[in-house]
Structure formats: C-alpha cells, structure tokens
C-alpha cells in the first residue's frame, strides 16, 4: 500500500544547521516535488524529542523517528578514517543530535585509555545503542560512485570511482557485512561488526544471507582507503609528528589536516616550515617556529619540552665595544647576556578530541597574524630599496 506520509531528514554535521544546508543545496523543494516532507530535526519546537533509556544512559530521539511505521536508511558509502568505509551502522548514528553523538573521555581505573583505544570502544557502543533503539526496515548502501583516497568529505586527495554497485537489504548488519566483503574486508577486521555480532543485532554469517543479483565471489573492489598514519598526509611546508594517539584525536586531526591541505594553500605559502604535533609525547618539532599542538595529550605531555622556551642572546654594541678596546686605559670586557623566554610561536588546540571548527578558527587567526607580519616585512624591504 502507498505510504500516507513520507519524511526525509537527518541531523547535519556539528556546527551546521539543517536550514542552511537545505537552502544551499536546494534539497527541500526537490524533496517536496517528489511528494515527501523535508524535516528539520534540529528544530525541536517543530520536531520534539523523546528520551530513551539504554545501557544506563539517556538518549533523546526525535519523536517523528520513533513513531514512524517504517525507517529507511539511504547511506552513501565512502572511505572512512576509522572504519574503512561509511557503512550503514555509522549512518544510523545521525538519528540523534551531535549532543548525543559526542564521546566524553572516560578513563577507567587501572586501564590505559590510549592502548585500549577506549574512545573507539565507547564510540562503537554508542553507535550500536542508537541503532538498537530503532532498527531500519530497509537499508540501501549506495556505492554506485565511491569516494576513495580521502573522505568521506571531498578533499584534495579524494577520487570518485564508479563501481555501479548498490547493496540493499532489510538487515543492516547483513548489508554492511556484504558491503565490506566487496572490499575483501572480513568480519574479524571490523570492530563494529564484531560487536554487533556479540550483541546479536543482525546476521553476521554470510551462508545465512540470501543473496540476489551479482555473484559475491566474482565481485571484488580495489580502492584506495584513507591513510593509516597522519604523517602520510603530506602538504606544503608541514611536518606531522605523532605520539601515542586515540582514535578520536586521529579522526579529528585527519579531517583538519585534509582541510588545511585542500583549502588553506594560500595561507601556507607564508609559512617556511610548521610542525603539527599530536598525541602523547610526540617527537620534537622541525624548528622552534610555527608549532601546532593538537589535543590535550600533546599539550600536557610537552609542557616541559625544550621547544616551549627560546634562548635570546643580548650582547653590547660591537662597534662601541671595539672603540673602547682601542683605548689603552679601557678595561671594559664584552658581556653577553642570555635570556630564556616563552616560545610564543606555538598554537595550542585543546580538547580530547579538539573541536574541528574551533581548531580552524584558531589557525585562521594565527595565519592572519603571519600574513600581516610578512606584509610589514615586505613593505619595509620596499622602503629600504
């Protein structure tokens, strides 16, 4: 039977509003022309929330989602820095607002937060909690065009690859399992699908999945996934130095570095050399100038490092000293004064992980100061000529 009413919507990326996205892309009139209603889930006056208790925490869902008869997930599959691909389980996380997606750093007594990658474990738990509250009735993993290299957003190193494939099914876990198998990624190599199996949230045995269409064994996709090391993101005059790092800071730094590489080439031309330090006890920077400390671990573990201070040498005027020494009665000795000062050419980006928008604003302000400094230097050189 035909649906009486169809709603289309999702929560936008943190820092954006659905209204702004809709106006920019012209989504709303297009959706309405097809007979559906575009919903602004971040407008709580129009779309109120309902609290749901799960695993000892409270998560608020839009009532329009919880009370819907059918839920369909249309998921665009691309590369992802943490999970290889943006499978539908990740897409289901957008059923709740960014407030409930945020992972709070919670260090367990006697456990190494970084070694265990507690951030990723907590993220997977939250994603599956949200998924289990309202499972979709139909899942569409669209990889007809697949963004490889760098993603899931479009960056300088991104490349769009046509695969002509779509994976569709009623069991999200099964759909994701088949999707990953197309890339020859096994269940054992997917942390989130392993946890979904442990929680019995869907079918995780391929023999139990009824396949219609292409032969799975004959269909294999070869793509370029995201870099595994931040040091492999190479761009103008920038040197990335990483210590021990959690998945949260890795993900945010991955996106920040790619944003810088893609959109800040003009700003970077004013910098001869800059070091991007991240993680616990990162290696020393390339120089004492233009040091970016990303995240609480990098900031706190380098508080007493040598690069935090600079040595300034002040000596007397050499010409005056020479004149005095020419005098026979002069007993003056050249005294050199050495001072230690705080290195002010360091940008700290706090948080675990830091907020991407705040980081961009801080860097833009810092680069603006550098541009002003270089303009003054160039003007001075012109006057001297």
Poorly predicted spans: 380-385
Shape: elongated
- What's the helical proportion of residues? 25-40%
Number of helices: 13
Straight-line N-to-C gap = 82 Å
The main pleated sheet reads as: 5 strands, mixed
Name the beta content range: 15-25%
User: What order do the SSEs take from the amino end to the carboxyl end, as H and E?
Assistant: EHHEEEHEEHHHEEEHHEHHEEHEHEEH
Q: What does the average pLDDT come to? A: 91
3D architecture notes:
There is one protein chain. The protein has 385 residues and is an alpha/beta fold. The chain contains 13 helices and 15 strands. The chain has helices at 18-25, 27-33, 63-66, 88-91, 98-101, 118-133, 172-182, 191-198, 247-263, 265-268, 296-301, 318-326, 356-384, and strands at residues 7-8, 37-38, 49-54, 57-62, 72-80, 84-85, 138-148, 159-162, 166-169, 238-242, 274-278, 291-294, 309-315, 336-342, 346-349. Residues 380-385 have low confidence and may be disordered. It starts with 6 loop residues before the first strand and ends with a helix.
Write the layout of secondary structure elements.
Layout: E1 7-8, H1 18-25, H2 27-33, E2 37-38, E3 49-54, E4 57-62, H3 63-66, E5 72-80, E6 84-85, H4 88-91, H5 98-101, H6 118-133, E7 138-148, E8 159-162, E9 166-169, H7 172-182, H8 191-198, E10 238-242, H9 247-263, H10 265-268, E11 274-278, E12 291-294, H11 296-301, E13 309-315, H12 318-326, E14 336-342, E15 346-349, H13 356-384
Parallel strand pairs: 1-2, 5-7, 10-11, 11-12, 12-15
Antiparallel strand pairs: 3-4, 5-6, 7-8, 7-9, 13-14
């Amino acid at each position: 039977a035909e649906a009486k009413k169809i709603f289309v919507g999702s929560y936008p990326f943190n820092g954006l509003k659905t209204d702004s996205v809709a106006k920019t892309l012209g989504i709303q009139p297009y959706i309405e022309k097809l007979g559906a209603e575009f919903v602004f889930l971040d407008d709580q006056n129009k779309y109120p929330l309902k609290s749901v208790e799960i695993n000892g925490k409270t998560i608020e869902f839009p009532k329009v989602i919880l009370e819907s008869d059918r839920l369909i997930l249309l998921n665009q599959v691309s590369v992802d820095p943490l999970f290889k691909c943006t499978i539908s389980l990740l897409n289901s996380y957008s059923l709740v607002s960014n407030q409930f997606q945020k992972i709070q750093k919670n260090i367990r007594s006697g456990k190494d937060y970084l070694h265990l990658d507690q951030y990723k474990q907590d993220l997977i738990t939250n994603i599956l909690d949200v998924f289990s509250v309202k499972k979709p009735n139909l899942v569409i993993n669209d990889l007809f065009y697949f963004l490889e290299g760098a993603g899931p957003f479009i960056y300088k190193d991104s490349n769009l690859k046509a695969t002509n494939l779509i994976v569709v099914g009623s069991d999200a876990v099964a759909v994701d399992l088949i999707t990953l198998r197309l890339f020859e990624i096994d269940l054992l190599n997917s942390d989130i699908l392993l946890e979904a199996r442990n929680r019995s949230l869907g079918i995780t045995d391929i023999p139990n999945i009824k396949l219609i269409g292409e032969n799975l064994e004959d269909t294999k996709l070869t793509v370029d996934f995201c870099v595994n090391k931040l040091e492999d993101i190479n761009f103008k005059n920038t040197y990335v130095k990483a210590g021990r790092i959690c998945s949260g800071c890795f993900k945010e730094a991955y996106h920040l570095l790619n944003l810088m590489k893609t959109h800040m080439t003009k700003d970077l031309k004013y910098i001869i050399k800059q070091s991007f330090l991240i993680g616990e006890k990162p290696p020393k920077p390339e120089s004492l100038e233009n040091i970016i400390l990303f995240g609480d671990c990098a900031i706190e573990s380098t508080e007493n490092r040598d690069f935090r201070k600079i040595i300034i040498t002040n000596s007397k005027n050499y010409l005056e000293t020479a004149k005095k020494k020419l005098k026979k009665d002069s007993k003056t000795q050249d005294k050199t004064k050495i001072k230690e000062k705080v290195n002010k050419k360091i940008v700290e980006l706090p948080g675990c992980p830091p907020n991407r928008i705040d980081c961009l604003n801080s860097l833009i302000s810092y680069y603006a100061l550098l541009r002003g400094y270089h303009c003054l230097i160039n003007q001075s050189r012109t006057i001297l000529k």
